[in-house]
Every structure is written in C-alpha cells, then in structure tokens.
Amino acid sequence: MNILQNEIIGLETEVLNDSNPVNVGIRGKVIDETMKTLVIRGMGTHKIAKQDATFKFLLDGIAVKVEGKALMGRPEDRVKKKIKRKW
C-alpha cells in the first residue's frame, strides 16, 4: 500500500525532522491537510510545513517514514498521481 496515494487525514503521525526544531517530536492525529501544511492534533494543535519536515505515519499498523516534499501539492491531486519508481 502506497501512503502517497492514500488519504492521510486521520492517521497517527510524528514529526521526525523539521527545519524548526520546536516541531521535532510532535505526535498526534492528522486532522487537516492543505497543499503545503499538515495540521496535527496531539498535545495541542500544530500546523507543520510539509516541505521542511520528515514524518512517520502509522498505516495499517506499519510505521512509514515519508519526506514532506513527497506530500507537497493538493491532497486530492496527490492521491490520483502515478508514482514513478526509481528502481
């Protein structure tokens, strides 16, 4: 299952890396997604820029690490996009 072609709203996530060190370690559920940000609700609500962050999502009980740059774009377009494999 490809996380880039799935809806990520409702998934548990954690910020593993970010250009803003204050955001590293934020955990919670994705409650909204825009073209450039994710809104995560855990211990408060946080808006995280996708471009500068690395996320860990829990999808069907499996932890998946995703570079935020891969999530850039409108969510409705991302789920339709075909992913070219590099191997």
How many whole angstroms does the radius of gyration measure? 12 Å
Q: What's the total helix number?
A: 2
Output the structural class: mainly beta
Write the CATH fold name.
SH3 type barrels
Helix/strand order: EEEEEEHH
| SS strand fraction | 35-45%
Average pLDDT number: 87
Quick summary:
The protein is mainly beta. It contains two helices and six strands, in the order E-E-E-E-E-E-H-H.
Can you describe what's shown?
The chain is mainly β. It has a single domain, classed as Ribonuclease P/MRP, subunit p29 (SH3 type barrels, Roll). It contains 2 helices and 6 strands; from the N terminus they run E-E-E-E-E-E-H-H. A 6-stranded antiparallel beta sheet has the order 4-3-2-1-5-6. It starts with 11 loop residues before the first strand and ends in a 9-residue tail after the last helix.
Question: How is this fold's topology laid out?
Answer:
Blueprint: E1 12-18, E2 27-33, E3 37-42, E4 44-49, E5 53-59, E6 62-67, H1 68-71, H2 75-78
Antiparallel strand pairs: 1-2, 1-5, 2-3, 3-4, 5-6
Labels describing this entry:
mainly beta; SH3 type barrels; 6-stranded antiparallel β-sheet; 9% helix
